[in-house]
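2024-03-11 09:14:02 INFO worker-7 job=invfold-0412 stage=load source=structure_tokens
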């Protein structure tokens, strides 16, 4: 099995490149007759070279088709050793720049970047956004019994979260109300970590003014919420419908697997995290990533940076392995650079 493009003869390399390019363009198996006008060889000679490439594990023929398609190993060899990546198309650059503008909240700009990539690549656009801790707007506690209460946390961004908290049997409704009033009057606008630290200081310095057990309970809850928000990926996905096209309809099981994978935000975030340290675009093809082994999908992703020059997120596309890599890679790279300029 060839691991380097240099192991292929010039003839093998030429035909292999044409097969992959034709497959990525049309999404169907490529036969020898389709290449007769492209290379100066007879169909029989082309078939012989294709057979050699198949024996090396770079091509395969699906079912009873006479045509070949690249394997995942072949696609990797093509992307790394043959494909020529150009600058993004000027029209595509203008469309990305039109969507990513400064006079909008950063969340909207990231969503627009994801949507722009999705529309231009005809795949799913994804953005791993910078993590930002929720700021507290209001806290409500509703007793549900002697040992439980419903905590309602309202963030400054309008998000609402409900959780059940377990109480000490000695914690009264009056004590909960007292601490809730203090939180809403004194801690609104703080991050959860800041609110927790302030509440602990109050417990320490003004023990007589706050019920110790109730305040400690709320402080530990704020700490747990804060930690949870830091772990939770902020993922924006746009354009899943692009993955269900006429060609995909022939392989509904693969599409179903991919759509199910896209629902697993935690795992997608983990995949994108793998591109954080990349100097430019990073490409995952099919089963190179465990998550997409079933659907045979590819990910093209690139990191973008914040005002301090550190990586704050990742942007990319997810689609079938027959993505137009030469076109999509510069598109993703340009979007990452556009987001970096926006964050500066």
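2024-03-11 09:14:09 INFO worker-7 stage=emit residues=344
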């Amino acid at each position: 099995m060839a691991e380097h493009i240099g192991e292929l003869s010039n003839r093998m390399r030429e035909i292999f490149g044409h097969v992959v390019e034709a497959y990525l363009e049309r999404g169907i198996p490529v036969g020898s007759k389709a290449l007769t006008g492209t290379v100066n060889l007879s169909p029989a000679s082309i078939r012989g070279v294709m057979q050699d490439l198949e024996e090396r594990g770079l091509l395969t023929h699906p079912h009873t088709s006479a045509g070949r398609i690249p394997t995942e190993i072949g696609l990797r060899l093509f992307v790394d050793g043959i494909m020529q990546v150009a600058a993004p198309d000027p029209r595509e650059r203008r469309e990305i720049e039109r969507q990513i503008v400064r006079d909008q909240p950063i969340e909207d700009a990231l969503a627009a970047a994801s949507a722009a990539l999705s529309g231009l690549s005809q795949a799913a656009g994804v953005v791993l956004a910078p993590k930002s801790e929720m700021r507290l707007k209001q806290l409500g506690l509703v007793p549900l019994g002697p040992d439980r209460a419903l905590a309602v946390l309202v963030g400054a961004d309008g998000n609402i979260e409900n959780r059940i908290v377990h109480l000490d049997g000695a914690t009264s409704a009056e004590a909960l109300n007292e601490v809730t009033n203090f939180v809403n009057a004194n801690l609104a606008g703080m991050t959860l970590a800041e609110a927790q630290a302030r509440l602990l200081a109050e417990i320490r310095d003004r023990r007589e003014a706050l019920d110790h057990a109730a305040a400690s309970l709320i402080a530990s809850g704020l700490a747990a919420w804060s930690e949870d928000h830091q772990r939770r990926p902020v993922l924006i996905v746009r354009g899943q419908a692009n993955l269900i096209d006429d060609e995909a309809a022939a392989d509904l099981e693969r599409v179903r697997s991919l759509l199910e994978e896209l629902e697993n935000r935690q795992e997608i975030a983990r995949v994108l995290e793998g591109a954080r340290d990349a100097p430019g675009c990073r490409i995952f093809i099919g089963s190179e990533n465990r998550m997409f082994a079933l659907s045979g999908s590819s990910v093209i992703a690139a990191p973008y940076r914040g005002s301090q020059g550190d990586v704050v997120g990742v942007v990319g596309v997810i689609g079938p392995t027959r993505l137009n890599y030469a076109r999509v890679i510069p598109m993703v790279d340009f979007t990452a650079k556009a987001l970096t300029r926006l964050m500066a």
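2024-03-11 09:14:09 INFO worker-7 stage=report msg="DSSP finds eleven helices and ten strands in the chain."
2024-03-11 09:14:10 INFO worker-7 job finished
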